[in-house]
């Protein structure tokens, strides 16, 4: 029965594999170790983690913009930052 196709054309086996991969990617799931979380809880944690990553990227972007605004655009430091962003 695990190979049965769902409405979207993805088998239950494939869904289980994706859920397993999510568990390895989420810090909170890794801390739990081998304990199984419900799929609903795992998806909520995934959404929360993605939102926190977005906030972190936004914060780093703001900080970088502030730093670039205070630098001489022709300085070696500014060139290093530009090269990292390419």
TrEMBL record:
<dbReference type="GO" id="GO:0046983">
    <property type="term" value="F:protein dimerization activity"/>
</dbReference>
<dbReference type="GO" id="GO:0005634">
    <property type="term" value="C:nucleus"/>
</dbReference>
<keyword id="KW-0804">Transcription</keyword>
<keyword id="KW-0341">Growth regulation</keyword>
<dbReference type="GO" id="GO:0006355">
    <property type="term" value="P:regulation of DNA-templated transcription"/>
</dbReference>
<dbReference type="Pfam" id="PF23174">
    <property type="entry name" value="bHLH_ILI"/>
</dbReference>
<dbReference type="GO" id="GO:0051511">
    <property type="term" value="P:negative regulation of unidimensional cell growth"/>
</dbReference>
<dbReference type="GO" id="GO:0009741">
    <property type="term" value="P:response to brassinosteroid"/>
</dbReference>
<dbReference type="GO" id="GO:0016036">
    <property type="term" value="P:cellular response to phosphate starvation"/>
</dbReference>
<dbReference type="GO" id="GO:0005737">
    <property type="term" value="C:cytoplasm"/>
</dbReference>
<dbReference type="InterPro" id="IPR011598">
    <property type="entry name" value="bHLH_dom"/>
</dbReference>
<dbReference type="InterPro" id="IPR044293">
    <property type="entry name" value="PRE"/>
</dbReference>
<dbReference type="GO" id="GO:2000024">
    <property type="term" value="P:regulation of leaf development"/>
</dbReference>
<comment type="similarity">
    <text>Belongs to the bHLH protein family.</text>
</comment>
<dbReference type="InterPro" id="IPR036638">
    <property type="entry name" value="HLH_DNA-bd_sf"/>
</dbReference>
<protein>
    <recommendedName>
        <fullName>BHLH domain-containing protein</fullName>
    </recommendedName>
</protein>
<feature type="domain" description="BHLH">
    <location>
        <begin position="1"/>
        <end position="53"/>
    </location>
</feature>
<keyword id="KW-0805">Transcription regulation</keyword>
């Amino acid at each position: 029965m695990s190979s049965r196709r769902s409405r979207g054309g993805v088998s239950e086996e494939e869904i289980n594999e994706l859920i397993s991969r999510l568990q390895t990617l989420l810090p909170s799931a890794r801390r739990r170790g081998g304990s199984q979380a419900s799929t609903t809880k795992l998806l909520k944690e995934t959404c929360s983690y993605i939102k926190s990553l977005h906030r972190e990227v936004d914060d780093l972007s703001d900080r970088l913009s502030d730093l670039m605004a205070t630098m001489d655009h022709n300085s070696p430091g500014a060139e290093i930052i530009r090269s990292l962003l390419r």
